[in-house]
Amino acid sequence: MTASSADSAEQGEAKSALEAIESNRGGRHWVEQETAPPKSPTESLETIEIEPGYEIALFAAEPLIHDPVAICFDRHGDMYVVEYSDYPIGPEEGGDPLSKIVMLEDSDGDGVADRRHVFADKLDFAHSMMAYRGGLLVGAKTKVLFLEDTDGDHVADVNETVFDGFTPAHPQMQIGNPRWGIDNWVYLNYGPGEVASKRDPDSTVTLPRKDFRFNPQTLEFESDSGMGQFGNTVDRWGHRFYCTNRNPIITTFLPPNVLARNPFHIVSAPYYDVAPSGGQSEVFPLVEMKSNYLSHAGTHTSACGTTAYTGDLGDESFRNSVFVCEPIGHLVTRSIVDSAPLKFIAKRAQEKRDFIASTDTWFRPSSLATGPDGALYLADMYRLWVEHPKFLPPEIAAKLDWRAGDDRGRIYRIVPTGSVTRTFTPPESESESVDLLKDDNGWRQFLGQRLLVEQQATGQVAELRKLLASPSSTTRLHALWTLHGLSALKPADVRQMCGDANLHCRVAAAKLAGSMSEDDAAENALIALADDSNIQVRFQVALSLSANDSQRATATLIQLARRDGHDSAFADGLLTSTKQRSGAVLTGLIDDDAFRDSGTDGKMDLVRRLAAVVGARGDLDELESVFQLIGRDGDQNWWRAAAIAGIGDGLPRYRGERGRMSLAGLIAKPPAQLVDSMDGLKAVFDQSGVIATDTERSVADRVAGIELMAYQPFDAAVDTFHALLSSDQAVQIQSACIEALQRNGSPAAAEIILDRWSQLGPSVRGTAIALLLRRTESTRLTLAAMSQGKMNPSALSIDQRVRLLKHADEALREEATKLFGGVVSPNRQKVAKDYEGALAMKPDAAHGQEVFKRVCASCHRISGEGHETGPDLTDVRNRSKPALLYDILDPNSKVEPRFTAYSILTVDGSVLTGLIESETSEAVILKMAEGKTKAIGRAEIEQMKASDVSLMPEGIEKDITLQQMADLLAYLKDR
Question: Which pLDDT value is given to residue 416?
């Protein structure tokens, strides 16, 4: 793309605001660029950079393989590969499906494949598989197929449908990626539809847009939490990870069968991102990313093939690695997963580099697989384009050759430098399958477990039980779950594993102990784990006590709530076990002096959620006990207010015989059984406004009081709401106030927020904007405030701007068009026009580095050089030079909340300007130029006000000539 055409796309004076923004979407910003020709396998290998300490070699290439997207190994160690030639547009009209599964052989043992067998062809959009029952289980558009070669000619002669009726979204999102779970269920990505199994083909079950799992012994099937796209994996400890385009590593936290235990408890996110996602999911390509959105450049936009390494090579960090392919970025990331916390955390193996990256723009990594030898195998589809036409405007999609590269493809073999791999010998007997559980290679351990369970090898139970004392923790873990898969697990086995040294083994034992509550010794072992040093184990105890309704179990849940319930995620799980005893758990907590005497955000949230279950359940006996609890004598008010707010949240969800309920309705006309118990509730309710504004009270008491204001008439609370959003209020107070305004539901809430906009901290602005844009009238007020200069349009994200520019209300669309007039703001358009010439000049990147040091380094860092007050610029090479030019010359056209400058006037008259790095109830931490920080106590602050502009000032052109700008752009872009 030439500089002038790029400028036209970026600025577009004759275009509408929507066109100006969307010129950077849907491929419009790169479709006219020339594309490099494909490279030979050897040439392409030379373009690949791999993390130091690892080696990559070519295992297979065309003509032996083409369009490879998935790899698996069967019980013999043979490699099977899916050739996804249907992707993305399928065959010509009337033609046969194009997808195939091939078997590749390295017949001479030289580490390179040399023989190809077409195992199955004419498969309809088949894109994934796993070894299963002597054949392959295959995800194919609307079906899960079983393919088997029964006569040894390497060609499948069995092709049967195991499940049918799935609804595909598009070729990247359909049923597939089957994986054997450590619990002996098979898990697949994306399973919505009207689904039937071969066991009962005439009976269908309606499944939602979630992942899918089935029991291979019974073919029982159901949905699983989460909704993965093309990527599904199980690590050596049995944790399942999956992905979507912008979410590279996700895991399930609470599966549907656990959530169903307490229908009165709402869990908004039963799965979570293990790794950063969206705009935070940084990647570092070696070439410019031709992503669908320019704003996605430098982040995951096509994450797929998520794979946990389960082999026995490398160090501990490598063995705990999860790899993710990013075909739009021509790279593969490596993250090390810490699975000790309650919620797992993935950390990049290299801070500013990826595991694999290539300058070959045809390199399209799609998925990986651990091999029987411990090596990691990578499928490279090697296509010119891998985006789907569905996600591009028709005029752009029509210009692309979607078949370019469909006659090519590569598979790479990766090992840590200096590793010695071991030849795999397939098991010939059940006893040899047991021996596989003793191996350090996780692929072999999973194979041994799967074979034993598939064959229901009950004759090996005694040998498996011996392995529960193995020195290897993974061996013990697989032995435990294999016994479970053989229906041979005894309470004594679980009791033994409850005392295991490895936390993953103890978690598994606690999970399995939940179904053995009839055994006193197993129950004792489970309850003893409530004192475990690891929070994951304690969490599983809370889940496993769900079916145990004894007083002892309830007392243990109270103990766990007291210790860990302040953690929102822990509370999510614990409440699945309190369907009929949330009131009892709440009473047990309040009976504890230490819990009751000091309130925290976590404690308030726990009390509120327990009370919400009580309200949603609507049992009068339980409600009466909680109201009596609220009416007790005592000075602490935080928990009373939180309990009342929780009941207020829960009552509207009640669906019993008394019909619709609300807190206001209950207070106005209580059932006879509750009349005498409601005096305490009313007293706390009446005092909520006083408590909320009393700066002498604890933040916990005040936040609890604010929550109750959500249930009061707006007119009675408006002055209080206004006061609580002033700049002298702690961020917790401002945040609670905005949430209360949202719950209150009054249209006038927007006026208060807009009036106080300049005094809101960056951590609450996102919530405030969401409230402002919820309704047409508040949106209208917001746009009016922007027009009047009270609020900077840059506060809205690009996606929010687009929604307004496409709004159904014509008047709102017109106002948005006036405000969002293009990428370059009106007052900077002439400057941008004047500096267009820099894009055509011959640059000198070395001189550009000097310009960066002189002009930019006081606030920005690049590759470790400079100060990180503003955004780190290391990855800006992913943006086009015109885009960078406009970022530099018009820094206020878009300002992320975290980079909004604030001015603080102190009581002694000093004025400090910088970014708010963090806030507490006691102080504000201000980050200023050159990375300097200063803590300012709340008592020192006279006024704090957002400037709504970037800390980077306009007018940088005064310090940079056209040639220097060209040099700077070269340094930023081409270094």
Answer: 98
